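Duplicate of #3305? Posting structure anyway:
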């Protein structure tokens, strides 16, 4: 096993425990993945709890999904593979069923192309526009196609009545963006029916100019 793979396996264990302790992951819900330099993907195993991962049992799969090492991968690994295929710069993906983000995914939205208001600069910078993908039953392979389509333009997306998928250039970046999404959703619900003052179109354009990479 390469040093890179060993390091990334340990990192998945650490971040899994962190997300579990922060109650962003519960039971055996949610999955994390990392793409290695050789293109293989490390993904959390099926029925594993993110709070209690073991480095050597983490699944290693080929970009086609074939198991190369470790336990069988999460049943949701197929949509991680679709995002990696569509976004060459993505090196890590976080998918959780955290409370506020899931609540947001269960609302009726006027527009499905952007369901999280631009309330704060960090929300805009880390999450950006958040499209809502329609509901699919767990394991439905048609979800991979919908995810692939959304991943062409978005590193973060929300699955209806399910939860978000967030990609990043590193596991840290994907986790931070996921946490920003969850916190922004929490703020959105705290504001409730009160009239909020989201960032203006100009403010968002300025952020995109200043921080786009
Ligand atoms: Zn899920």
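Output from current build:
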């Amino acid at each position: 096993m390469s040093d890179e793979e060993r390091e990334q396996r340990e990192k998945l264990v650490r971040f899994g425990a962190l997300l579990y302790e922060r109650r962003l992951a519960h039971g055996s819900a949610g999955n994390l993945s990392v793409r290695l330099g050789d293109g293989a993907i490390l993904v959390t195993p099926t029925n594993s709890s993110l709070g209690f991962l073991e480095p050597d049992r983490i699944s290693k799969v080929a970009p086609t999904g074939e198991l190369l090492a470790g336990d069988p991968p999460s049943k949701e690994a197929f949509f991680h593979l679709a995002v990696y295929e569509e976004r060459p710069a993505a090196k890590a993906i976080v998918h959780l069923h955290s409370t506020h983000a899931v609540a947001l995914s269960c609302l009726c939205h006027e527009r499905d192309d952007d369901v999280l208001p631009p309330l704060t600069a960090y929300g805009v910078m880390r999450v950006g526009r958040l499209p809502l993908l329609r509901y699919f039953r767990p394991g439905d392979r048609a979800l991979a196609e919908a995810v692939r389509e959304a991943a062409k333009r978005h590193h973060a997306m929300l699955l209806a009545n399910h939860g978000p998928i967030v990609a990043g250039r590193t596991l840290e970046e994907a986790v931070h963006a996921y946490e920003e999404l969850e916190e922004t959703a929490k703020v959105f619900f705290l504001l409730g029916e009160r009239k909020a003052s989201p960032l203006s179109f100009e403010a968002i354009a300025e952020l995109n100019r200043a921080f786009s990479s």
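Confirmed duplicate; merging threads. The mean pLDDT is 96. Residues 3-211 form a domain with the L-fuculose-1-phosphate Aldolase fold (CATH 3.40.225.10).
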